[in-house]
Amino acid sequence: MIVSFFLHIYQPENQFDDVLDRIVNESYRPIFRFLNDNPKATLTFNISGVLLELWDKKGYRDLIDTVNTLLKRGQIELTGTAKYHAFLPLIPKSEVERQVMLNFETSKFYFGEFYKPQGFFAPEMSYSPKIAEVAKSFGYKYIVADQIAFNGSLESNPFNSIASIGGVGVDIYFRHKNLSNLIMGANFQNTKLLISTISNYEKEIDNNNQGYALLAMDGETFGHHRVGLENTLFGALTSKKLITVKVQDIKKHISSVREVVPVDSTWASSQKELEEGTPFKLWFNPDNQIHKLQWELTDLAIYVVNEAKSRTLLDSALYSCHYWWASANPWWSIEMIEKGAYGLYLSITASNKASIKTKERALELYQQIITTAFSWQRTGYVREIAKNTSSWKKIPFSIRGKKGEMEALLDLLLQQEKQCIKKREYEQAIRWRDAQYKLKNNLDIYDAVHVIDQLRTTEIFKKYPALVNKYASKLNKISSGQPEK
């Protein structure tokens, strides 16, 4: 099986200097230093053009020089993207094309002839037919999307062939959601455990030894969000037990091809959201009043902006972050919401095309966004939204699990606890012990990531299906057959 690591790195243009400095020194420099010192390690990056400019302006030119070196070697691959990280499905096609062109021009400026992107990454790994069409028009050979974009379900296996988007002629590679999320959640203490977990998935992915696992996530995960996790990544990139390639090279190893019609989605989309018809819920929720105001202000800005000064302001203000922070799902930041709204407002006031009435409406929308956000914060409505969003988690696994699963899970957790004790891995033993207690007492509703995802990273999880069948059979023998009320 082929493994491809894809790291998306980006910071907004208005990122605080101290925050940027931390990320550079905790994440970016260690990653690029490692790659520079290990010429055989290879992966694919998406680096937003706005971040390249930040590196240049804020004194991190060494990063640009290192990326140049890695590109010259052919060691890494860079994809195209939207320069300012705009959320492409919800803006006009002309704005999508502008963001893509701006990013290409910026990257070309810094990397010259060695910048030859084959693939395209839409911010938030979003997908809509418009994105595929624009990518095709710019000459990109492939795009990346989340596994759920394959057909709206995570039960299917899109990884054992090369997929081509029907009617467009652009390939699409799907991110393995579970494996990627397990890495992002720092479920691997070392490279050995990561490789073991990848091997556990290999049987379900491979088709006659033809299959791939695209492991995609924010690059800032390594070293910044998850301290020390960069060492697990480095070990995987240099391991002889994994065949790691750039995304553009996956096609060299897989001969099977099929045509697909992906569904609208992002790497944050859930199957439930897709079924409800809200694939972009974190950026536009029809029931979210702040989102409605934000997008009315956005549409107004796009309509009136037409000349150089306000045009540049709008390009930057379209970044996706302020819509995301307004989702309260569960992420929330009044500061980020205000920054985004103010950027849009400034682009309108700087436009010669904007009438006095339009500028007054822009100010009104800006003020409504801020007052609504403060009202949500003050009244506790933000917490209410977050609570309702994750209401499914309030159902204990003992109730929502299938017959035999609870008993099988407890059995495996106990085995895992005992193994850790023998190895003197007492902290891990406590982890598995506490998981049993929570499950038995229906306290697992407070866990952000269910213990099954943690257990799945272990070798012992292979026993799970057989144990489920074993306990289900026992329960069937003692069950009265009376359905639960």
Structure description:
With 485 residues, this protein is an alpha/beta fold. The chain folds into 3 domains: 2-270, 7-stranded beta/alpha barrel (Alpha-Beta Barrel), CATH 3.20.110; 289-389, no CATH class; 393-473, no CATH class. The protein is built from 20 helices and 10 strands. It has helices at residues 17-37, 49-57, 61-73, 93-111, 129-137, 177-184, 191-205, 229-238, 271-275, 289-304, 308-317, 321-325, 334-349, 356-379, 381-389, 397-400, 405-422, 426-440, 451-455, 464-478; strands spanning 2-9, 43-47, 76-78, 119-120, 142-146, 162-165, 171-175, 212-218, 243-244, 257-260. Strands 1, 2, 3, 8 and 9 form a 5-stranded parallel sheet that branches. The protein has a 5-stranded mixed sheet with strand order 4-5-7-6-10, covered by helices on one side. Helix 1 (17-37) runs parallel beside helix 3 (61-73), helix 7 packs across helix 8 (229-238) and helix 13 (334-349) packs antiparallel against helix 14. The chain is globular.
